[in-house]
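lol ok so funny story. i was supposed to be doing the assay writeup but got distracted and ended up predicting the structure for this chain instead. priorities right. anyway since i did it might as well share w the group, maybe its usefull for someone
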Amino acid sequence: MTRHSGSSRLALVALLAAALTGCVAAAPKKDLTRFVAAQPRSVLVIPVVNNSVDLTAGDYFLSTVPIPLAERGYYVFPVNLVKRLLEDDGLADAALVHQAAPDRLGNLFGADAVLYIVIQKWDAKWVLVSTTVTVEFEYTLRDAKTGTVIWEDKETMRYSSDAGGGGLLGAIVNAAVAKAAPNYMPLAQQANARALAYPGPGFPAGPYRPEYRKDYGSGAGAQ
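and the output, tada:
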C-alpha cells in the first residue's frame, strides 16, 4: 500500500466518523417549564387535521399516537371513542375540533391536556428511478383549562427506495412498488417516537411511570 493510499483511507475513516457523530447528536432540549407547571396526567388526542392529498392519512396516523403517549406514562382517551363523542357533540370535522376552545374539549372528557396534530405531508414522489416517501407532522399540546401551549414539536421523516443490489432494473422495480403502495406507518411511528423522546423534544415521564417527577432535571425546568 502506498503512503498516498494509506492517507486517503485514514481521511475517509475520519470523515465517516464525523458523519456518524453528527447522526447520533442529541436533539436540542426544550424548555418544559409550562409543561411541568401544568402537571398533565391525562391527554386527549383529538382528530388530526389532514393537509395532505391522501384522504385516509388522518385516520391511519391517529391510530399510531396513543401507544407511545401511554408508554410515556399518561392516560390517553381511546381515540375512536373520542371521535364518536365529538361527532355527537356537533364536532364531526377535524378542523372544527381544532377551532373549539380547549376547555370545552377538556370538560367533555375530563382531560388535563389536549393534543392537536396537523399532517402537512403524507406523500410518495417518484423521481427518475427512486421514490421518496415523506411524512411531516406538527404537534401542539395545550393545557385543557387555560388553553396555553405547554409543548409543541414538528417532525419530518423520509424513506427513499434504492436498488438494493438489483442494479438499475431493481431500482425501477423498488421505486414502482414504493409509489404504488407506500408504507407510511413505520415513518409515522418513527416520527411519534422522536417527538416524544426525552430528554429532547418530548415529554418527561408521566404519572404512570416509575421515574415520574424524577427526570425533570434533564431540562424540564422544574423543582
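The radius of gyration is 21 Å. The longest helix spans residues 3-23.
back to the writeup now i swear
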